[in-house]
Every structure is written in C-alpha cells, then in structure tokens.
Amino acid sequence: MKYNTLIGLEIHCELSTNTKIFCGCKNEFGADVNTHCCPVCLGLPGALPVLNEKVLEFAAMAGLAFNCDIAMNSKMDRKNYFYPDLPKAYQISQYDIPLCSDGYIEIKDEEGDSKKIRIQRIHIEEDTGKSLHDVEGDTLLDYNRCGVPLIEIVTYPDMSSPVEAMNFLEKLKETLLFTEVSDVKMEQGSLRCDVNVNVVREDGVRSKIVEVKNLNSFKAALKALEYEEKRHRELLEKGEDSKKETRRWDDVKNVTISMRSKESVDDYRYFPEPDVVDIKLDDAFMDRVKDMLPELPDTKRERFISTYDIPEYDAKVLTSSKEIASYFEDVMKLIDNSKLVSNWIMTELLRRVNDEGIELDELKFAKDDFAKLLEFISSGKINNSAGKKVFREMFETGKKAEEIIKEKGLVQVQDEGEIKKIVEEIVNANPQSIEDYKNGKDRAFGFLVGQVMKASKGKANPQIVNKLLKEIIESK
C-alpha cells in the first residue's frame, strides 16, 4: 500500500531588536536570571504595553523576503492559556489578521526539482519565560525571555517528506540570516520548530494530524518526522489510527512521547488585545522596509555565477552566509581571479575558521593580506604548496605573506636551467620509473614529479617540472 506524507511547520523566530516587543527592557541572551524584566514583562496590574516599531519593521522585512502580502491594517490579540512561564496567563499575539500572509519559499525536492512551499501566515507575538529544572526536581522560572519579540511562520502542509522539510528549514534559516532580523541560533532558542505530520493512504484513508513541539535542532526535527511518518504508516497498516495530539521528541530514546491532546483555537479564547492600539502601516513605512531588504541568497547566487563565472556549487558555498559572500566580493575587488579566490575561501579559509570556531571578522590578517597571498600564488612567485604554508602562519600569527615568504625562502624557482639540472638527476637515478612510465603506468610520472619537488625543497615551478620531465623522458 502506498502512502503520501503531509508535513506542515510552525517556526518561532526571535527577532534581534535591541529592546523587547512591548517595553524598554534589553533583548539579550545570557544575562543573569530575572535581570531583564519589568512590570510590563511580568504583566503586573496597571502596566501597559507599547508596541516596538522595530518589531514591525523586522517582521515586515521577513514577510517580503518570503514573498508575503503585508497587511497595512492589523491588530494584536490576546491568547489565553495558563503555563508557569507565562506570568500574565495570556500571550499577546495575532489571530485573524496576521501582519504577513500568502507567501512561499522555493526549495528543491528529493529529485532536485524546484517546489514552492506555501506560507500561510507570519504573525508577531511575545515570547514566554523559561522554566529551569534542577537536579532535585524543582522548577525555577527565568522571566528574562518574557516579552522578547517573535515571529511565528506557519506553512501549509506542502512538504511530502522529512528531507523536504529540512530543505525548507535550511532555506528559511539562510534567508533570515541574510535579512539580519534574527541570529537564528537554535542552541540559544532563537529559532524553534514545531512539526505537524500525518499520512494519507492511496485509498484516501488518512491518519490524524500529530504535532511535535519545541524541536531545538534540525537534526531533532528530521528524526522526529521520520519517526512519526513510520509510526503513522504502521498504525494504518494495522487498521488503527493516530490520536490528534501534541507529542515531544525524546533525544535519548529517539522516540516521540505523548504530552496532551491537541488544543483547538477555541481553547485559547482569542479576543482583540485591549491594551495595544491597532496597527496601521503607511507607504512611507513600507518603502523604508523595502530599502532595508538586502540582496537575498538566491539572487546573490545567480549573480555570482554570471558575474564571476564560477560553478553553481561554489556560488552556493560562498552565499551560505552574508559574511562569506561579502568576504569573497571584497577580496575580488583586490585580485581578479575568481576561481582561485573561490577555491581558497572554500577550502583553506573556511576549513580553518570552522575548525577554530571563529568568525571571519576575528581573523588575525586583513582581506588585502589574503588577496596579496593569492596574488603571489597566481603570479607564480610561490606555488600552491608553499601558499598553504604561508597561509597557516598568517592564520596563526597575523604576519603578512611577503614577510613569511622572505623569512622561509619560499620563492618559487622559475629558472628552467636550474630546474633542468634537478630533473636530469632524478631521471638518471630512477631508470625503473622511466621504464614503468613508458609502459603506460601514469603513477610513475607522478612519483618522478614528487622526487623533483622534494629535491628542490618544494620551490620548483610544477608546470616547468612537468614540461621538462616529459621532454627529457621522451628524448631517452
């Protein structure tokens, strides 16, 4: 029996505003507990919320980035429910008139074809506090997160596999990073994901939708979706059905566990928030937001391919973050060799940056120093192997490339007469390798090249070595 999987996502994304959504408290992760909260955060009697305009700007920017319509007139609503980390016993959110609606993100499906995943809505709301559970089983509450601005992004159930859901999340995260409306750090709770999943049998019978809450990594989301997809299919094969419920993912046991029956909209008793005025945007506001919107990843990727004549794979790596893309373009202003710059950024630079866990702006050398190193390689002053040695020292000490090359005597030997002497010595010392090469064993030629480079201490120009080696072998 064949099954189709239906997956929809609800993504909560904290916005990187300086202050919270309804008060002047600092919006900052990692502060001492309960030091960034006030009567408004805590919902104390008489404390009135005032909507932060920057929240509207960031939310509208995210909406435009995801091809949404922006509501020029909307409002805030009160969502009522009790939970220990929600001191007011209600959350200020949006219900029937979200700020953004009817958008989409274009992804690649499992076959590599383009597919549009529709976004139903993006609305703004306040975050809740955080429950902290200690080893003795007690629960403490940190209200610093109360009132941190969120956008909730809700999709239609357009994803038909866990892999498609991951592709969507990666694209969403990448786009949000480029807009800089959020740092999307899942380990800090800046991005959290709920997944809704059910399956449809080919005869039309479908399982009930299950929601898996508060997944704090893409890996957890993928595993939870794969688990639920399999569980739903097995239930239908046994003639049973899933319950319409909310579940959580257990990272240790790699299973989902039932938490409660799924709430309906009526359970929240929504009504218009009486303490916040209605939201009315104008053309000047929207023009400002459009001007703030940067070049987005897909557009930048296409421009990199056409402008710099680099492969699609290179363009994808180089546009994986705004910082990497900017670094590449800044270096390209200093040296006109896109393939060389692309290769070195993707291999040596990003590898070391990732290994050390640092950001590009923390490098000990400047961009013009990096460009100068690549210029030395491109011009043949040093070979690629020597370039790697120079780069390692630049990375560790911050010294300039020219200084390191001079200190270590790494200037490449270009003199054909000098190289020819070394090549002749190696050829005369390795008659068996010459014979093997003539008998079609290409490895023998690579061995001979290696011996010449070793004898020259890595300084001989490899192109000249290859040319002379072939000429001398053919003359024998």
UniProtKB/TrEMBL annotation:
In this chain the Asn/Gln amidotransferase domain maps to 326-473
Keyword Nucleotide-binding in the entry? The reply is: yes
Reactions catalysed, semicolon-separated, are:
L-aspartyl-tRNA(Asn) + L-glutamine + ATP + H2O = L-asparaginyl-tRNA(Asn) + L-glutamate + ADP + phosphate + 2 H(+); L-glutamyl-tRNA(Gln) + L-glutamine + ATP + H2O = L-glutaminyl-tRNA(Gln) + L-glutamate + ADP + phosphate + H(+)
Single GO BP term: glutaminyl-tRNAGln biosynthesis via transamidation
Record carries keyword ATP-binding: yes
The catalytic activity of this protein is classed by the Enzyme Commission as 6.3.5.-
What's a Gene Ontology MF term here? glutaminyl-tRNA synthase (glutamine-hydrolyzing) activity
Keywords attached to this Swiss-Prot or TrEMBL record, sorted alphabetically, are:
ATP-binding, Ligase, Nucleotide-binding, Protein biosynthesis, Transferase
Superkingdom as given in the UniProt entry: Bacteria
PANTHER family the UniProt entry points to: GLUTAMYL-TRNA GLN AMIDOTRANSFERASE SUBUNIT B MITOCHONDRIAL AND PROKARYOTIC PET112-RELATED (PTHR11659), GLUTAMYL-TRNA(GLN) AMIDOTRANSFERASE SUBUNIT B, MITOCHONDRIAL (PTHR11659:SF0)
The record's similarity note reads: Belongs to the GatB/GatE family. GatB subfamily.
Q: How does it assemble?
A: Heterotrimer of A, B and C subunits.
What is the role of this chain? Answer: Allows the formation of correctly charged Asn-tRNA(Asn) or Gln-tRNA(Gln) through the transamidation of misacylated Asp-tRNA(Asn) or Glu-tRNA(Gln) in organisms which lack either or both of asparaginyl-tRNA or glutaminyl-tRNA synthetases. The reaction takes place in the presence of glutamine and ATP through an activated phospho-Asp-tRNA(Asn) or phospho-Glu-tRNA(Gln).
- Name it: Aspartyl/glutamyl-tRNA(Asn/Gln) amidotransferase subunit B
The protein's organism comes out as Peptoclostridium litorale DSM 5388
